[in-house]
């Protein structure tokens, strides 16, 4: 007997999450799949099951085969270990930079993220969560994945760090290179497709260039 449907609902409620919160962490735009899983209509694929187990910080075997609501030891472990972070509702482009004229307070919501997913960055109030739109970084961050962005001093950035940047209001995510010899900053895609090209900003025209932060964590969606 599989306890997945019962456990999923129990874990979600225990962590104070709505169905849409979990759906978004899994890279989905609506809560319909989560609702159907909890109703026992069907079970997601193995990769998604692993993602769910990771989000809640439990073994996959426990998620599937144990009645967690009846397990006293599990209840002790499930003391709330999530924290709130700013969530940018406009996704960041992993393709051609997206036009975002200005970020307003209403562009942000609050999202709960388990500490286990952010590791050493758990509880860092400067972290911003958003999701990625596009395939120019799909070797490491597939389309739909969630990322954690931490503001960082540009002097501390290293070649190939993944950053979120804007140039005249256009936001994107790429690998960073400061080409001092040729006096330019290069933002390089990391894609399985060769259709994406470098985004190059010469020092002399970089007055509107801003690096918002370094990507310190990604929650990868394989489905």
UniProtKB/TrEMBL annotation:
GO-annotated molecular function: DNA binding
UniProt-listed Pfam families: HTH_3 (PF01381), Peptidase_S24 (PF00717)
Record key words, sorted: DNA-binding, Transcription, Transcription regulation
The species this protein was found in: Listeria booriae
Domain HTH cro/C1-type: 8-63
Top-rank taxon: Bacteria
DNA-binding listed as a keyword: yes
InterPro entries in UniProt: Cro/C1-type_HTH, Lambda_DNA-bd_dom_sf, LexA-like, LexA/Signal_pep-like_sf, Peptidase_S24_S26A/B/C
PANTHER family in alphabetical order: HTH CRO_C1-TYPE DOMAIN-CONTAINING PROTEIN (PTHR40661:SF1), PTHR40661
Protein name: LexA family transcriptional regulator
């Amino acid at each position: 007997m599989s306890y997945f449907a019962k456990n999923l609902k129990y874990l979600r409620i225990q962590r104070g999450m709505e169905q849409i919160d979990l759906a978004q962490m899994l890279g989905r735009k609506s809560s319909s799949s989560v609702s159907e899983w909890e109703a026992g209509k069907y079970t997601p694929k193995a990769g998604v099951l692993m993602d769910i187990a990771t989000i809640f910080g439990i073994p996959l075997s426990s998620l599937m085969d144990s009645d967690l609501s009846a397990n006293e030891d599990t209840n002790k472990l499930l003391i709330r270990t999530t924290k709130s972070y700013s969530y940018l509702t406009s996704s960041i482009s992993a393709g051609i930079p997206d036009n975002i004229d200005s970020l307003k307070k209403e562009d942000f919501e609050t999202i709960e993220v388990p500490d286990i997913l952010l590791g050493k960055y758990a509880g860092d109030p400067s972290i911003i969560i958003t999701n990625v739109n596009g395939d120019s970084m799909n070797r490491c961050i597939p389309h739909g994945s969630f990322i954690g962005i931490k503001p960082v001093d540009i002097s501390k950035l290293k070649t190939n760090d993944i950053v979120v940047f804007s140039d005249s209001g256009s936001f994107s995510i790429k690998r960073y290179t400061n080409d001092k010899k040729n006096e330019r900053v290069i933002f390089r895609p990391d894609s399985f497709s060769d259709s994406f090209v470098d985004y190059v900003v010469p020092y002399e025209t970089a007055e509107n260039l801003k690096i918002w932060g370094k990507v310190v964590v990604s929650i990868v969606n394989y489905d």
